[in-house]
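**Reference record**
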Amino acid sequence: MSTFRNPFAAAAVALVLSACGPQAQPTEAPPAETPSQPSPDTAGSTLPRELDPLFAQAAQEFNVPVELLKAVSYAETRWQMVRGEAEFPGQQPAFGLMALRGEDLEQGAALAGVTAEEARTDALSNLRAGAARLSQLATDAKVERGDLAAWAPVVAQLSGITNPEAQAEHVHRSVYAVMNEGAVELNQDGSVAVSLEPVKVEAKFARPQVRAMAAGPDYGAAVWRPSPNYNARPSGSTGDPSMIIIHTCEGSYSSCWSWLTNSASGVSAHYVVNESGSEVSQLVREASRGWHIGATYDSSLNGGRESWLNGVSANHFTIGIEHGGYASQTSFPAGQIDASAKLSCDIARDNAIIKDSYHIVAHGRLQPATRTDPGPNWPWSSYISKINSYCGTTTPTGEIIIDSNSANNDASKARFSLTGAWSDGYSAGYYGSGYYYAATEAISAPATFEFYLPTAQTRTVDAWWVAGTNRSPTAPFIAYNAAGSEVGRVSVNQQTNGGKWVTLGTYSFSAGWNKVQLSRWTTPGYVVMADAVRVR
């Protein structure tokens, strides 16, 4: 039985991008084309910490084996309450623990006696709608309900996958594989959120074709599944691969590669990484132009980098990696991140791509009007660090980066916290995956960047922020040692020098957890920006 990280522990990302407080406050205004980020738990609903009773209720009510209901949910969402977006043209967004889409969601909701919106946002309603739809399909197929193996064609039908090989992969190596292996999801306190005991069963469904799978032409660890959806890159420097784009499929791995290899879809990516990291598919050669991002390049969305490419189709000079999963999920499996980092290292090494967050970039950063993937919880700092480690280009010895998104931090030596009312933002030029901002007023209520040192050391501290005209010209950063004594302070002008590391000073710290705090106690009428701190 495998144990997985709790996907319900992280708080939902706020949809409101204005500072809040007892008085009217100035706001950090993102560009008009920057969308609000999706909330993993969705607005207006709270995801229960114990899901087993909900699965049992839905399964019993609609006469669906509870093991099957849990396995389908795990295969589709890793038991996360997702709120999908349409990653590909013609793709309906998926919702809830069951990743219900389109007609399946509408019909399931009607059968369960709930509204479509309830089926999208409420955990129990979503499970009941999913169970009701499975039950209807089973009735139509005249399935013997007590025979777990006989449900396999219904599982394939609900997946929406039409490619026979992908259907077989999804049934045998995803849904029925987790039934055979079992899984458990723990809460942070160690209690069980949901569990699936192993059930030995062989699906009554055509097995994946037994044949030697060709290795990817550019990445030997990949399976070669060629897509017809590509063309030649333009000649000259604009056609040379210089960036890697990170996507989420907004669905499962098998549904993703089957869609991207379908000529009718009109889309593709160079690679797809499965949820566990155990398999990678290559669909398009790196030298060819994949069809994975529908935007022309705008350097203002990417920290001002590579402005000479402004106005050029991003597909010309990028290599796209899709990942089974959703932009709204609260965490990503360690195996998937590791496999993706190895792949990105290989791509970057072979194409001389710079290994930083401006050249290995989120899809949502370059196409913010319609995309947010891979979402706010993609662990950018650790991901880039892994890529550099696999490529033998590690960060300087002893350097510690504390990001405002805790998912990006090495918890053994970096942590971030907030006191008081702060809002999250995503305007272009941020480090990692977003930042926090708050109105200036006569209150400290700081953002705290903590870092661990094994011995007393003198270190230089840098900060990163997104600049803007409403930012404080006197944002106060204060450094403390592990004993809580102040060791230095500096006020910086956050209206300038955005999108890069700015040195705050060099200070003497002690052994243990030291910290740098960004206070709000300065001239009112502005906002202060808490993005990232580097200790070197």
User: Anything to note?
Assistant: The longest strand covers residues 457-464. Residues 123-141 form the longest helix (19 residues).
